[in-house]
Design brief:
The protein is mainly alpha-helical and 184 residues long. The protein is built from seven helices and no strands. It starts with 6 loop residues before the first helix and ends with a helix.
Length: 184
């Protein structure tokens, strides 16, 4: 009996997997750096990082179009989620409409998770900008209410991120309460 194993396609998949995980990790690093700059008000530095992140995301998405099974590989979602978080935070701070999943060229799950994660960055922003606390709470609450319309019937990363969003909303309420107590 002769076994005809798909070794060529296996090797190609493994090569693409390694390359994709590298893109995702580099994308995560650039995006986190952009977030750090955004929170410090260093918009030029943040934009430089976002340009690099966009190119890395495009490279990753091109690779995933070529090898669609890569979406099932753990770790691929980390970079795009962080990129979404950084880009949406930038949009928010510049008072622009939030970019869509199509604008960012990401899967809907990465987009929804990154959007939830942005609420944590808004919480950090509020700590340093007490005058914006009420507006940020209103925005996080509106985001949370929008997510309540989604039907999430399985335990997934989206459900976990929705729980994080709810916690961030409650933390923001507590932060405002504490601020008001200290400054009244």
């Amino acid at each position: 009996m002769k076994f005809d194993l798909p070794l060529d396609s296996f090797q190609q998949f493994e090569s693409d997997r390694g390359m994709g995980l590298g893109y995702s990790n580099d994308l995560r690093i650039e995006s986190k750096a952009a977030i750090g700059h955004l929170l410090k008000g260093k918009m030029d530095e943040a934009n430089e990082r976002l340009v690099k992140a966009e190119q890395l995301n495009n490279d990753l998405q091109d690779l995933m179009e070529k090898t669609p099974y890569l979406i099932s590989v753990g770790g691929f979602h980390v970079g795009p989620e962080e990129y979404v978080e950084a880009k949406l935070l930038s949009d928010y701070l510049e008072e622009k409409p939030l970019s869509s999943p199509e604008d960012l060229r990401v899967h809907h799950e990465s987009y929804l998770c990154g959007l939830c994660d942005m609420s944590g960055e808004l919480l950090r922003l509020a700590r340093f900008n007490p005058g914006q606390m009420e507006q940020i709470l209103n925005d996080i609450t509106e985001l949370y209410q929008s997510y309540m319309e989604a039907v999430v019937t399985r335990n997934s990363s989206i459900r976990k991120k929705m729980e994080d969003l709810e916690r961030n909303m409650k933390r923001m309420e507590e932060m405002i309460y504490t601020w008001n107590l200290k400054h009244s």
